[in-house]
Amino acid sequence: MISIKDVARAAGVSPSTVSHVINKTRFVAPETKVKVEKAIDELGYQPSSLARALKIKSTRTIGMLVTSSTNPFFAEVLRGVEEGCYHNDYSLILCNSGDQHERHISYLKALIQKRIDALIVMTTLADEIFYEKLAALDSLPKVVLDSEQTGFACTIGDDSVHGGELATEFLLKRGFKQIACLTGPAGHPRSRDRLRGFHRAMNEAKVEVNSSLIIESELTAPGGYEAMSKLLQSGQQVEAVFAFNDMMAIGAYKAAQERGLAIGKHISIIGYDNLELSKYITPTLTTVNQPSYELGLKAAGLLIDHLENKSELPKVIEMEPSLIVRQSVADKFE
């Protein structure tokens, strides 16, 4: 096995100089650095990441704990985190908890044992015990995504109250009053915020909310299908539907189309997230854009800036949602 001494001998320098080149811990003359890097390449030397971490007290690794890496929204956020890590020479360890308490705790322990430098958490229904354990890691820089504000970490998410208002106001401006909501679980913080925005917009427009048109389900395509089916089977008059994410909207499409309803004609649907696939379904989905990729990029950037430059982590950052108008919402005035 090639050692640091072999590299030093080949480059004609001391082992400590090789160490400084590898770890970037001291200025090394450019011509000396070139000789060391050439010797490393020619000998195929691979520095020990563990030894390096012990020496500089940093693994240049960020841990990320997510509910599900297969959810398209989470996948976009993850892409942003990965991009931010890669361009700053940090590694990312991803753990998918499936929102199971035992996995939350187990993966958190595993990440700490890996000596991560910082942690990003994005789960939908993390319980109190899990958050207590996170809070106890007071020396570990943390960012919590798409959640309520915490007292122990930087929280980043979109302004979902405003996003709920945007969606509802758009439906009202198109002439709809019988508006249904397909919400996520009652305990989901973003679902609660979007519902608050819906109520605010309806109240400001002086349009009565029919509580029986608010259907709770999972924030998934099957959840949207189930909620929309229940809504349509109720026999109540529904002109438009606000699905609390795009996956629910896609499920709602299927339920409506199975009953012979044309989206954007017989019934209008608006989603939330602006997933990539929302512009490829038929008709294309009008939705609220949540800057998912930028959210992940921001999380990685803030943590790395904190680690590298000792910059202070803000308590909360809210990113502005925006309306994306496509084909799934009709205009009653036309």
Automatic annotation (TrEMBL):
Species of origin: Cohaesibacter gelatinilyticus
Annotated keywords: DNA-binding, Repressor, Transcription, Transcription regulation
InterPro entries membership: Cro/C1-type_HTH (IPR001387), HTH_LacI (IPR000843), Lambda_DNA-bd_dom_sf (IPR010982), Peripla_BP/Lac1_sug-bd_dom (IPR001761), Peripla_BP_I (IPR028082), PurR_sensor_dom (IPR057343)
CDD domains registered for this protein in UniProt: HTH_LacI (cd01392), PBP1_PurR (cd06275)
PROSITE patterns reported for this sequence: HTH_CROC1, HTH_LACI_1, HTH_LACI_2
One function term, GO molecular function aspect: transcription cis-regulatory region binding
All residue ranges annotated as the HTH lacI-type domain in the record: 2-56
Domain HTH cro/C1-type: 2-46
Lineage: Bacteria, Pseudomonadati, Pseudomonadota, Alphaproteobacteria, Hyphomicrobiales
Gene3D superfamilies in UniProt: 3.40.50.2300, lambda repressor-like DNA-binding domains
Keyword Lyase: no
PANTHER family in the record: LACI-RELATED TRANSCRIPTIONAL REPRESSOR, RIBOSE OPERON REPRESSOR
The organism's place on the tree of life at top rank: Bacteria
A family per Pfam: LacI
Name listed for the protein in its UniProt record: Ribose operon repressor
